[in-house]
Amino acid sequence: MAKPLELIKAKDLTTCDSTAQMITKAREDGVELFFDRAQAMKACPIGDKSACCKNCSMGPCRMNVNSPYDRVGVCGATVDTIVSRNFGRMVAAGTSAHTDHGMAMLELFRDVIDGKTTDYSIKDPIKLLEIAASLDIVTEGRKLKDVALDLYAELEKTYTQVDGEIPMVKRVPPKTLELWREAGIVPRGAMREIMEMMHRTAMGVDQDYENITKQISRTALADGWGGSMVSTDISDILFGTPSPVEVDVDMGVLKEDQVNIIVHGHEPNLLESMVVSVADHTLLDAAKSAGAKGINLVGMCCSGLEALSRHGLSHAGNFSSTEAVLVTGAVDAMTVDIQCIKQGLQKVADFYGTPFITTNYRAKIEGALHIQLEEHEPRECTDEIVIKAISRFKNRKKPVQIPRNTAKGVHGFSFEYINYMLGGSFRGSYTPLNENIINGRIRGVAGVVGCTNPRSKQDYSHVALVKELIKNDVLVLQTGCSQMALAKAGLTGPGAAALAGPGLAEVCETVGMPPILGLGSCVDNSRILIAASEMVKVGGLGECIADLPAAGCAPEWMSEKAIAIGQYFVASGVYTVFGHTFPMTKGTRFEKHLFEELEELGFGKWGFAEDPIEMARLMVSHIDKKRAQLGIDKTRERVLLDMADRRDLDANA
Fold first, then answer.
1. What range defines the domain where residue 291 resides?
2. pTM, to two decimals
3. Distance CA 568, CA 28 (A)
4. Cβ burial, residue 39 (10 Å; 0-12/13-18/19+)
5. Neighbours of 281 (CB within 10 A)
6. Is 342 inside any structural domain?
7. pLDDT mean over 252-261
8. Could you tell me whether strands 407-411 and 245-249 are parallel, antiparallel, or unpaired per DSSP bridges?
């Protein structure tokens, strides 16, 4: 008889106290969460290194990860071919997820313009005109609808075009775009690139890892500068461009005396309609008749981050906490759309009597209730969800145990708001950011993004890494589950500047901002690309993105989307470090190509470390290398000018 698995203590699985409490309660209740499933399911040591090929029925073929060149596959494929094919297929899958999301948002935009969908509207016409102008669409003297129709037609090329260049490359710094053109990796259209990536990695097609890498980059760029960027821009146009708002986060945002509804997923239109439904007087009266003081709408994961940024909606936690929050017994309905939704949620929800509702035709789950969200009549779906939640509140059968943890933070730092924040209404500019990097008060900029993973201690790497970065005067931009890790730790408010180095702290105090800027969902990584492009455009920090003293990191990644994101940052010129594991066989030529040779060709490169302090060291070291190459590696001393000095400056101006 097999020996029972000795479970790891909850406090060793997560730094999130709320989640730890719910892990303990779930075990007492006899409910299995994904933390324990991960412990029972050991990772395949060959698959973990991506050294297994199952792209045909002659295999699967398994390479020797300790001596990768001592064998080849049945067809003769080397380990470099096998690992690069697998890597490319991960990028294709991740790109398809963001691309399909972006195309759905663009279709909604079209239906709003055409008047087929009236429950949504254009909330930010200024951004619509700005995006149109950036794509060389004439805006002056034209009706907004006509500009919007032209914008839709132009952005549709992002997905369907089979030749040429996707529209958003007009926003890429010229030197970076020149490098892409020379390398032959400018995306034509997302569908074309994903299709070609899958074809070239099929058995017997592309068997040169360097050539495969070019298509990997072209596919990933179709995500970052295509599907993801379009999704972010259209979401802003339809639902409003975020600006800073103070928000409560963590499981303590649940209310025992209210109907609690959690929305989890990635497409903002579900949550936007839910915001309207929970404010409906008829539904509020029904909730009060059931004995509730009100209806408490709460977000989780990435769609929750979008509503957090636009509406100040409370947020209960990131990916690793989505099952644990159901253990509170306080969730009266959990409704989901697409991406990062565990099938295990249905079983946990069923145990606690919580309606678990899918809403998107792409993502049905066995055993879940499906209520289809139709964009032209979204209230039919979201009103019904509220009614089911009210019924569950009235008939709660499980005891309620809500962790009392909450943290306040400031979120919603869009590209546009950062521009305003640094320069004001009349002088909005990234110039102050560049100047403070040049003078050394800010050492550089880091994007810390990505998921949480049960094979890492939840949130630990995110928090430890970011603390180390800001201590070294590195300004941090956050998205996705990483942003929520920092928010729960109380590090997204201006008070976090106390943990920053003296230079960064001084800038934060002057501007009135935290040293960690939350930009939104994982698809909103495109905001980081636009910010990087603006830093190049402003001047003083090189001619392309690869020149910037900047780095990226996903310390607890778990999704194929993360690999696509990482590759589009690398191809754009950013040194990108991943943590906890990486789908790579060490000691291979393909590893050297990604981790060294791409940078020598003018791109960014990949990095890897298991320890968050080591991740920070790698990133800071890279930032310092870029500062030295720019000739700004020595901090400038501030000089206080007297009136004579000022007159001399004026005379020489």
1. 251-394
2. 0.94
3. 44
4. middle
5. 7
6. yes
7. 98
8. antiparallel
